[in-house]
């Protein structure tokens, strides 16, 4: 009896020692599992600091009889697991299951029949028992097994066995001694946490680099080697540029020694919840919790969807310009319509009609045919072969002669595919190859010659009748002077007649404004829709080229970009028809006298700045080709009925072929927004827009034109330089517009953030400027903004402006 009491007392002392050593207080038993204190049902562990919880979890929308042991953020309203134990072996009833320390010292999950469903499966020192081992949930999110007598010697930790998520404090890398890598595996889909087909691991052949893998066998992406000296950490993650700056609340480091190689993300502010995951789509995503929005916000993602192997699955093609990223090939339909509609395309597509593939030469031509797709990047994967051939016809015959041949391509030689077509992509430059997809004849019907002649006669007669009807309608329309487009191209993009535009603008008498590209007039369509019509000057493309450009620009849609409704390309006339913006341009509202009732408040200006940045991000990163605006200024920002900003004239840089030498020198005020590259003659990139945005952001902050502010206030210093000085002095409030009434609604944190972002944008060295995507994230508070360097490089540049242009 005494021996039993003595053993029990030792166990209680051991438990107290663990609590004291890990947490400094014996009051936190709720974060611990022991042999006598298991976890079951609705119970959960909460880490000592309250940041993480562990318990039974059910994937959202999943089957009611599938439960998992998981760790999630305890203070985040959306239950978000960062680690799952039994990913492949869910249990059906948490009430009858238990998580406990087993007799051999391992942490185990037992089902209703008390069989082991999951185990930490580690080697425990000989002689140890469940009375000497405890499991503790730390406030880092790490679940550890440790000896009660020596908690510094952890037996096992969940950080060494991650699922799909890396959180701050977790090493991601490999053990050089054991050769084990703690690889991240995606979920199978958004409702099933079992391991999916995508993973991230350290590159076994290149140090300081990690790989994205498909099906545990095929690498499809790497962000490049870790190199913090470049300022971006990884060249493929520009959003991490700010994280690499000094004094950031985040830090990302790479460690390489004789025992291990790993990457480590740490965070200095423990109240910020941040995680990176490998998504079921095969992309890595960085997310941060925004308390005010009660949601996870994305701050970086890589790679682009079409770069992910099998993102669209088999027998489909990927296009970043379509509303739907993935589209089944002709003759195919989604394998799983439910998952396809939810945005998970990896299941791919399946044939509508099976290939008959008869080997009879006489009937083969009637059974199988080929559908051609132009300008594509050819499929990547196994099962392809090449053969020398004199012509495309030889390739077609060779493919038809083999029942396993699913597609072919000809480019001097034949390429054949015998397995599922994977990673077929639309070529954004329209310079890709053509591929011929094998389909049953029913999917590409071919009429016989006699039938064809009969159908031809019917079509001809129908066409004549239709033509007569159309002629009558056109005459009627002409008499009634109804304003209609001749036809549509793209998505609801109307081609207008010049005389119709003359009529709806009352012969261009109601002028809204003008600029270097031409004048803008107000017009009213027949249905009462008010439009803005810009008469272009200096556009020398022929009608065909102009229409081609319009079809491209007309398919670009974003809430912060002005919508192009139609155009006119008739003779020498080139006009664009836009949606009408009732509140006019930003400069008309921004530089109003403070006595005006409708002057923009600080909150409105700040939201306008964010909206403009989002529109530019779309132009730079989301379009088929990067569109550089080249003329960002308040005059080119329009405000809709709710004062939401719309970037206008974004297609004119493309139309004019980037040749702005003529218009820039005659455009009043524009010279104040030009990046140094324009004067130095170096190549223009999207960072030129970033510079112009920064100059405009100074004006949004102060409600004064940059140079005019310097002339009228504070010893005539150029405003960007003045901003840098005031930031250093901690007096950003002096940079705001001087109207005392306007200062009442100012958020000083937003003001400082906007000032620092603007200073980063106007750096002389374009490599120091952030991307517009990073600007959005910084303004929204998703990324920290560090102290910008002094604007030493911009001073001579500004003096050049003032001296050369007499500003």
UniProtKB/TrEMBL annotation:
Keyword Signal appears in the UniProt entry: yes
Signal peptide from the UniProt entry: 1-29
Chain segments annotated as transmembrane: 455-477
UniProtKB keywords: ATP-binding, Cell membrane, Disulfide bond, EGF-like domain, Glycoprotein, Kinase, Lectin, Membrane, Nucleotide-binding, Phosphoprotein, Receptor, Serine/threonine-protein kinase, Signal, Transferase, Transmembrane, Transmembrane helix
Subcellular location: Cell membrane
InterPro entries in the record: Bulb-type_lectin_dom (IPR001480), Bulb-type_lectin_dom_sf (IPR036426), Kinase-like_dom_sf (IPR011009), Pan_app (IPR003609), Prot_kinase_dom (IPR000719), Protein_kinase_ATP_BS (IPR017441), S_locus_glycoprot_dom (IPR000858), Ser/Thr_kinase_AS (IPR008271)
Top EC class, one word: transferase
Pfam families documented for this protein: B_lectin, PAN_2, Pkinase, S_locus_glycop
EC number(s) reported in the record: 2.7.11.1
SUPFAM superfamilies registered for this protein in UniProt: alpha-D-mannose-specific plant lectins, Protein kinase-like (PK-like)
Binding site for ATP: 535
Domain of life from the UniProt record: Eukaryota
UniProt topology in membrane: Single-pass type I membrane protein
Main location: membrane
Domain Bulb-type lectin, first and last residues per copy: 30-158
Cellular component annotations (GO), alphabetically ordered: plasma membrane
Residue ranges of every copy of the Apple domain listed in the record: 357-440
Keyword Transmembrane helix (UniProt): yes
GO molecular function annotation: ATP binding; carbohydrate binding; protein serine/threonine kinase activity
Single GO BP term: response to other organism
Similarity comment: family membership: Belongs to the protein kinase superfamily. Ser/Thr protein kinase family.
Protein name from the UniProt record: Receptor-like serine/threonine-protein kinase
